TrEMBL record:
Source organism of the structure: Parnassius mnemosyne
GO MF, one example: catalytic activity
Protein name: Endonuclease/exonuclease/phosphatase domain-containing protein
Entry-linked InterPro entries: Endo/exonu/phosph_ase_sf (IPR036691), Endo/exonuclease/phosphatase (IPR005135)
Entries under Gene3D superfamilies matching the protein: Endonuclease/exonuclease/phosphatase (3.60.10.10)
């Protein structure tokens, strides 16, 4: 595995040997995804995974569901390794970016085809927009009313109604500012799913994808009861 990190993009290159068990590969990738999520950047994972996406197998389903649970989708579903005896799709590119262009280059000196993808470059200067809010609740309203009632007897009453109005208005404004303090919120502070989701949450979503897939062909009563039990426990 090799990794290069740019300002807005992380590129990971992987080779999974055929002798490597899928469980070992998945455990390693879970750790990789946990680190990638902390960066909150666009991701491209490419390489030779030695898992044929053209073959209907449980490993194929687990493999694609694993990447899909982290928002990464494969760009190719056609043969990427062509030999005299086989034609498989074991090389691929997974990304969370919509490509501008993609293609497969054949007739190379290797029996593996080349893959080319063009991604958009978006350089956005994030502006931290803020909004000021004054929370109002029953507790603050009661405090506001109580403080005004307590200070009313101390007001200086004079025959001039304008002076009395100004004094009362000043008292109300001061108590309002002291009671209803403002709070500033950043509109860009909302975290994405990959920022807050733990490895356990990703695994649960991964399992949910598996159940959705199995639902397409498993219509047994036992399976429905099993799914109901899982969601009841949640």
């Amino acid at each position: 595995m090799a990794c290069v990190e740019f300002e807005h993009l992380i590129v990971v290159s992987i080779y999974r040997p055929p002798c490597c068990t899928y469980d070992t590969f998945e455990n390693i990738m879970e750790k990789v995804f946990a680190k990638l999520n902390k960066q909150n950047k666009s991701v491209v994972i490419c390489g030779d995974f030695n898992i044929n996406l053209l073959e209907a197998s449980s490993i194929n389903i687990k493999f694609r569901s694993l990447f899909k649970s982290y928002g990464l989708f494969n760009l190719f579903i056609e043969p990427t390794r062509i030999s005299q005896s086989s034609s498989t799709c074991i090389d691929n590119i997974f990304t969370n970016v919509k490509p501008l262009h993609k293609c497969i280059i054949q007739k190379l000196s290797s029996d593996h085809c080349g893959q080319v993808v063009s991604l958009p470059y978006v350089h956005k200067k994030q502006v931290d927009e803020k909004v000021v809010s004054v929370p109002v609740n029953a507790r603050r309203l009661e405090k506001f009313r109580s403080n005004i009632v307590k200070k009313l007897p101390s007001l200086s009453y004079q025959n001039d109604p304008n002076f009395l109005y100004g004094t009362l208005f000043k008292l109300i404004c001061n108590e309002f500012n002291n009671t209803f303090t403002s709070k500033t919120f950043s509109l860009n502070s909302r975290k994405s799913f990959n920022e807050w989701a733990t490895v356990g949450v990703h695994k649960s979503r991964h399992r949910l994808y598996d159940l959705y897939h199995e639902r397409s062909y498993n219509h047994s009563v036992e399976f429905r009861e099993y799914v109901k039990k899982i969601f009841k426990n949640i």
